[in-house]
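User: I'm curious whether this sequence folds into something compact or stays loose and floppy. Could you predict its structure so I can see for myself?
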Amino acid sequence: MHTYIIGIAYLFFILELLMIGGSFLYSRRERKTERPDWAPKVAIIAPHYGWDEDTAEHVKGLLHQDYAGEHDIFFVTHQKGETGYDVSYPPLQQIAENVPNAHVVLAPNIIDNSLPRSQKVQNLMSVIETLPDDVEIIAFVDADVDIREDWLRLLVTPLQEREIGATVGGRFYAPQTWNFASLVEAIWVNFQMGLQGDHGLSMVWGGSNAFRRELLEKAQILKRWENATIEDLNTTRAVRDVKLKVHFVPDCVAITRTTNRTWHQIVEFTNRQMIMTLHMGLWAQWLGSLIIFLPKAVLVFGAIPFLFHRTELLPVALIPFLEAASYRVFCRNLPHWLREMPKMQDTIRMSSYVTSFSMFLAGLNALYAIFQRKIVWGGVRYEILSATTCRVLGVAKKK
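Assistant: Here's the prediction. I'll summarize afterward.
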């Protein structure tokens, strides 16, 4: 019996390594690919909700893109409550006041106006509907990420290839404090870059992506968003439906710095991500977590209490250490500038020790998603009815 347990556990571990290895080789090939300079006019859309010192720094970073072509930046937030707007609206106006290519848009509040889509989707649509006619590329960036000055150029350049429908950058969580929950969340997020590549399972991430404006009509993107919870997974499906590629740009990595995350925050976030993945119809990503991560974790952690009596199970207990090593190898594929940041190597090392726990959490998230369609996002409760339809349930109660 123990032979089967060991064999199955290592089979799932090898499948993980194959996925990571494929992405590793793709990134090496992509970095060697040379493309002609190409700089069409771009509209950058940056949705905002809330405000803090980090957000202010992220906004200022977006204003200094090293891009040869014309580009306009549209910061967008929404109407809210008695003040009339989200707290991000005044500082955004102040920052954009003396920047000719920066604009601030105030979108309607979905609750007050009974709109059938998420607030983020509404914010994006409010900008797209007013874009100048000469905009050729639309790029998106989240408010909570730190990007480099070459971010826009890296995303736009591959779009000159007509078989590429959308480009996407990586998302990297960098815990600033090493509490256990923050480290688990970082692994959960960061390992998703290992699933990106030149294959059909690559996904658009809303925090850093771009596509040609013509895709709006060709793939009927706004129609897909009209009643939707989330935009990026719908964009992924749209690109696939018109037989184009989602192209991962390995050197285009956006950083989110986290501090003292709580288990409540992490479980809510990871459950929400997996619920959306399943009910948006991205079956492969959800199924991989359910049938690979969950059984392997159950075998590994289930075997540990018996090690003192069944030493033949010891090889199973080695898997967490092997997964820690695999995460460190994965991180060697990150851009040099990221790996060389202060304290980054220490953060990678500390995070690696919780890799198996993070995989276990992903498996539990996948299992939970089968039984749940409701999420809380940005202070609003939603029910995901289908890939393109949600029900807005109202403002979430504060806990």
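Summary: The longest strand covers residues 245-258. The mean pLDDT is 90.
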